Amino acid sequence: MNNHYHLLIETPYANLSRGMRQLNGLYTQRFNRKHQRVGHLFQGRYQAILVDKDNYLLELSRYVALNPVRAKIVKDPKDWEWSAYQATTGHKGISCLTTDWILSQFDNKQKASSLYQAFVLSGIKAESPLKAVKGQLFLGQENFIDKIKHLMSVTENLREITKKQRYVTRLSLNEILKYQDKKSRDQAMYEAHQQYGYTLKDIAEYIGVHYTTVSRVIKRIEGEEEK
After folding, report:
1. What's the pLDDT score for residue 161?
2. Three-class SS of residue 42?
3. Residues 50 and 149: beta-carbon distance below 8 Å
């Protein structure tokens, strides 16, 4: 689009951040050379959502293809050259683009591209699938979300997911800090900080103590676990 772009990416590796840095960095360099300018071109970090492929990817591909039509830049998605739509419908080739999965969603392989074209054109008034995004991160049904949340809870390296997104579905402090005595309270404070990412200040304000009190508790429990 004129001020942003959408990508549907599937990768078996946790390398999205590196790939986006490479893509945006190289494009910025070429753009700056061409227009004799310097500095950043893109503002802020990219926003990424995890998509339930079986239930939402086809609908999402239609939404992306129709963006320039909804913006009244073109009347037909095939007229927008900065899109994968032309290649998906067989009008031109893009070497890095994979269309097999999308076209395989239509029964008639001989007419898959024309059926996809009809599918896209029929969705001009359809509601954006992005409205179904949950927690700023998940686009999928409940079983998909539960599976991803479980993976997030047992995986230490989550660099591909921002902290803001990572903790959006976490338990509230009220749910975590249900304790019966001082020992269980201290453990709950530790878990709120270590497992759920609440700051010392967050926990201290909720309990009604100074944040240094929370800090001492967490350091003590960490020391006990190291023994």
Report:
1. 63
2. coil
3. no
